Amino acid sequence: MEIRDTMLPVLRPLGGEEEVQALREVIESGWWGKGPKVAEFEEKFAEMVGAKYAVAVTSASHGQDLVMKAKGFKGIDVINPTMSFIATATIPLWNDCTSNIVDVREDDLNIDPDDVKKRLKRNSDALIAVNMAGIPAPIDEIREFYDGLIIEDTAHSCYVEGAGKKGDVAVWSFQAVKTMPCGDGGMITTDDYDLYCKVKDMTWFGVSSTWSRAQGTSGKPGYAWDYQVDLLGYKYYMIDIMAAICLEQMKKLPAHLERRRHIQSQYNERLFSEIKRPPHSDTVQYYIARVPEYRSYAPDMSGGITASRDGLIDYLADKNIHTSVHFKPLHKYGILRQSNYRDYPVADSIWESLISLPCHPAMTDEDIDYVIYWVNKYFEE
Length: 381
Description:
Layout: H1 17-29, H2 36-49, E1 53-57, H3 60-70, E2 77-81, H4 87-94, E3 98-102, H5 113-119, E4 126-130, H6 139-143, E5 149-153, E6 169-173, E7 186-190, H7 193-202, H8 210-214, H9 240-270, E8 287-290, E9 294-296, E10 305-307, H10 309-318, H11 334-337, H12 345-350, E11 354-357, H13 365-380
Parallel strand pairs: 2-3, 2-4, 4-5, 5-6
Antiparallel strand pairs: 1-7, 6-7, 8-11, 9-10
């Protein structure tokens, strides 16, 4: 097969004229900040995921940070899985808390309840449960012995039926390569009214939104310039420009997820047999395969070539196929290693075999064939 001229990205968003038109309408409206589009998006998103309340924010990371600040967490121990993006472990550090990193399950790379039990401390008042690659974390199992706050990290789960309903609060991501992207953004969803009111006010320095005051919802006619600030807040609110994109992406989400699942199915059926397939995911935020150390021999059992994850990454790069690794374990990073110096038998044994293959709705059938051909070719050569 001929090598393509341009790089096939491992992840990318897919938009069109609908998003362009939505942005044009916002720009022409004169209301670019937090306004009617954000309010509409919050309402529709809460309805989609079955939550009572939703607060749109600048990113999922800021959403988790706001939840911790709203709960007043300082100096506590926060449990999180080692297979996750670095933000999961650094957000507790922003709040003068410790990151208690635990191992994951071998089958789905989700947080391991047994290791949570082993690592619990007296002040382990919060736990971040990541739905890895869209596969639900075992929150019900953890609830059997843990009564602290559970933040369900649903960054990979938009949208899996039931996602965001197991924890006390869920935080979603609309970052540029997520399943429902807008460039960057996030959403906090919860059924806890008190938490909702607090995080909503905290998104803009404790001030009620300009839009709500302009609509007279403050109880005063017209634009109410006066307001009271009763709690410390931040500048974490989403703006209408981002919300407009999200609203269009929400309409396309079913088709985009169907495309991701088609890619997942094709990989599962046609990739080299020794590659371990990931568990089924309804969102397929990442297609995380496992590459074994593999040695091929000549008929007389002489010679042989060893194949590996890193070798495959380099080989595919030469064919203009971009891959990634999700993720390097958190306990491997210097900023976290000293406070989490212990054994992680599962993560340590498998992470160097993990490879994320291209999976996104912009991929054509020819792109899928191209990836499968060159992955399989690597093991044949």
